[in-house]
Amino acid sequence: MATILVVDDELGIRALLSEILSDEGHTIELAENAAQARAVRERMRPDLVLLDIWMPDVDGITLLKEWGGAGMLTMPVIMMSGHGTIDTAVEATKFGAIAFLEKPITLQKLLRAVEQSLVKTAPRPAPPVGQQPVSYVRPETAVQYSAPSMGMLPQSVQPVSMGLASEQSFELDRPLREARDAFEKSYFEFHLAKENGSMTRVAEKTGLERTHLYRKLKQLGVDLSRNKRGT
């Protein structure tokens, strides 16, 4: 999996993106401004950067230009903005961004943009001003984020058959509560193993909100670390 740097001055955005991408198996580094982003970039070479445009100290476009001019744009950069336009997206791609996402960012578009950016293995330097921009996620296609949409996934993301036993036997000569808990524990363990420990996909598969799912698994004593995918 990849190491992803998320740069955004909003704590809620950083926390949300970190949770989703960590759940997908990525290692996440966080920065709330350009100064912190520079420090992380000097310390390591992330595989991908999610960079907010509007920040209080130095805006994302300026930081993108800075990295490009210093030859430090050796990783794909996805720009993010809650006030973006087509012109903003074009400007970002002119200076080296590989994609543009408008806030609020949907789960589907985030995962698709990250996946597409990571498969581009060749480093992408900033092209000269005036060069045709690369393709980007069009802002007008963004859909408002709402809590239920957290469980939605792109149709292209299909679970891989793990060869798991989808049928099990349960002892019925026991109290209803115990029998129900035993079934639910096996049910969730099956889906966790099938989805490689991805809470996002298990929540979508089982029809539960993520917070409810976490509480349920803790109540049942399900070992979450056993099926967590490696980084």
Commentary on this structure:
Strand 4, helix 4 and strand 5 form a beta-alpha-beta unit. This protein is of the alpha/beta class and 231 residues long. Helix content is 40%, strand content 10%. It contains 8 helices and 5 strands; from the N terminus they run E-H-E-H-E-H-E-H-E-H-H-H-H. About 14% of the residues have low confidence.
Summarize the structure.
40% of the residues lie in helices and 10% in strands.
Overall pLDDT: 78
Q: What's the β-strand tally?
A: 5
Q: Low-confidence parts lasting 5 or more residues at pLDDT below 50?
A: 131-163
Helix content percent band: 25-40%
What distinguishing features does this structure have?
231 residues, 5 strands, five-stranded parallel sheet, alpha/beta
